[in-house]
From TrEMBL:
<keyword id="KW-0862">Zinc</keyword>
<dbReference type="GO" id="GO:0006508">
    <property type="term" value="P:proteolysis"/>
</dbReference>
<feature type="domain" description="Peptidase M14">
    <location>
        <begin position="113"/>
        <end position="431"/>
    </location>
</feature>
<keyword id="KW-0482">Metalloprotease</keyword>
<protein>
    <recommendedName>
        <fullName>Peptidase M14 domain-containing protein</fullName>
    </recommendedName>
</protein>
<dbReference type="GO" id="GO:0008270">
    <property type="term" value="F:zinc ion binding"/>
</dbReference>
<dbReference type="InterPro" id="IPR000834">
    <property type="entry name" value="Peptidase_M14"/>
</dbReference>
<dbReference type="GO" id="GO:0004181">
    <property type="term" value="F:metallocarboxypeptidase activity"/>
</dbReference>
<keyword id="KW-0645">Protease</keyword>
<keyword id="KW-0378">Hydrolase</keyword>
<dbReference type="Pfam" id="PF00246">
    <property type="entry name" value="Peptidase_M14"/>
</dbReference>
<keyword id="KW-0121">Carboxypeptidase</keyword>
<keyword id="KW-1015">Disulfide bond</keyword>
<comment type="similarity">
    <text>Belongs to the peptidase M14 family.</text>
</comment>
<feature type="active site" description="Proton donor/acceptor">
    <location>
        <position position="397"/>
    </location>
</feature>
<dbReference type="InterPro" id="IPR036990">
    <property type="entry name" value="M14A-like_propep"/>
</dbReference>
<keyword id="KW-0479">Metal-binding</keyword>
């Protein structure tokens, strides 16, 4: 950790987003894409939210971006009638500052297991929480690797701790993208809800029962609560909008690789960038980052450890409210639909309706590359499905649909987690029903 402390102490002061707006733009033809795209690329202060890279901007979906007030005005002036423009967030800096103050106030003086669940935790707090909750019975944790800045990555095992357990396995990673704060919070609350149920404390919402939750333990769950600790901590210390990891790139001033573009299926095809300064920089080849290597090593270790195989894989992201089986890779690299798409869609639709029943949130369902509106090569989802042979693999994009985006308020953590757990229960039921 010494190295990490050193880096933290020399880090630049926090990036200030006061006066920055989040804008949503939409338009109707490919000709206008050129106009809007060229205006967007010339904005100095732009931080793209959806899609994540300029190459993926097209007229079939809206574009959400953060930009200074001055350039927001400039954007509207230059595109004129060429696009519909709405302001989603008037002042992102206000929200960031408010959340930071609340976060500090709500966690001050607390330790380990006592942190509130309706608050985001810094990485060291999250780490403390994991260690404090490791009871060796329902939940165990292990250090599965170390990041560039020297932080530990933890793998959590929920379920039967007997090493000879024959149960099927579910593999899940959260927070592979740094700024998606709702994802480690949701995965953490899932663990808490299950542990509480095991102790007879019912935290389930009215749409599913404690018994249905406990039935999840028909399988062994393996969860990486934060896949990107360096990037995540950086969003607290320096830049709330950071997405990648924090490892420097040789020959470039620009830091970081998009960890969910680092896997071999479709690597550096559409949606993954070879530009080191891009927020979707995919690395010169697959598995150049420690985090991606750690993901693969833990997966292989679990698969080879005997007992049941890994039969489902979940990659938890935000935002947009989507339930997406493969492919994420574009049709140039993989023209055909997945062989299992009908089956994957059937299970996805059951997850969608179980989720809706919790808080009536509507999540859309479909192949990643279709439902998001752009392809992304090099994801854990496609690697799990194609290379590792996990038929049920998903990207889940949690709340919301853009009112707050990555700045989702902390009071939505518990409801978001509740509806997400409803999806996990459906995955579990599906695995139980298979031979
Ligand atoms: Zn993401």
């Amino acid at each position: 950790m010494k190295f990490a402390l050193l880096l933290t102490s020399v880090a630049l002061s926090e990036k200030d987003y006061h006066g920055f707006k989040v804008i949503r733009a939409s338009w109707e033809s490919s000709e206008q894409t050129e106009l809007v795209g060229s205006v967007l690329e010339r904005l100095d202060t732009i931080n793209l939210w959806q899609p994540e890279s300029f190459e993926n901007i097209n007229y079939t979906r809206t574009v959400d971006f953060l930009v200074s007030e001055k350039e927001a005005f400039e954007f509207k002036r230059r595109v004129g009638n060429g696009a519909d423009v709405v302001t989603l967030i008037e002042d992102a800096g206000d929200i960031i500052a408010h959340q930071a103050t609340e976060q500090k106030r709500a966690t001050r003086g607390l330790r380990g297991a006592s942190y509130p669940y309706d608050q985001f935790l810094t990485y060291s707090q999250l780490e403390e929480w994991i260690l404090a909750n490791d009871d060796g019975e329902l939940m165990s944790s292990e250090i599965i690797g170390e990041t560039y800045e020297g932080r530990n990555i933890y793998g959590v095992h929920l379920g039967d701790q007997d090493p000879t357990s024959n149960k099927k396995k579910v593999f899940m990673e959260c927070n592979i993208h740094a700024r998606e704060w709702i994802t480690p919070s949701t995965c953490k609350y899932f663990i808490y809800m299950l542990k509480s149920a095991k102790n007879g404390v019912d935290l389930t919402p009215s749409s599913f029962s404690m018994q249905e939750l406990l039935d999840i333990l028909d399988h062994n769950w393996y969860i990486i609560v934060s896949m990107n600790p360096d990037g995540y901590q950086y969003t607290f210390d320096s830049d709330r909008m950071w997405r990648k990891n924090r490892e420097p790139n040789q020959g470039s001033q620009c830091v970081g690789t998009d960890l969910n573009r680092q896997f071999p299926v479709g690597h550096l095809t559409e949606g993954g960038s070879s530009n080191k300064c891009s927020s979707t920089y995919a690395g010169v080849e697959a598995f150049t980052t420690k985090e991606a290597q750690i993901w693969r090593e833990w997966f292989m270790k679990l698969r080879n450890s005997g007992g049941g195989d890994i039969e489902a894989q979940l990659s938890v992201h935000s935002y947009s409210q989507l339930i997406m089986p493969p492919w994420a890779t574009g049709r140039v690299a993989i023209p055909e639909d997945p062989a299992d798409i009908d089956y994957q869609m059937r299970v996805s639709q059951r997850m969608q309706s179980a989720l809706f029943n919790v808080h009536e949130k509507v999540y859309r369902v479909g192949q990643s590359r279709d439902v998001v509106g752009y392809p992304a090569g090099g994801t854990t989802e496609d690697y799990s499905y194609q290379t590792l042979g996990v038929t049920l693999s998903w990207v889940l994009e949690l709340r919301d649909t853009g009112a707050y985006g990555f700045l989702l308020p902390a009071d939505q953590i518990i409801p978001t987690a509740e509806e997400t757990v409803a999806m996990f229960i459906e995955v579990s039921k599906e695995l139980s029903s298979r031979n």
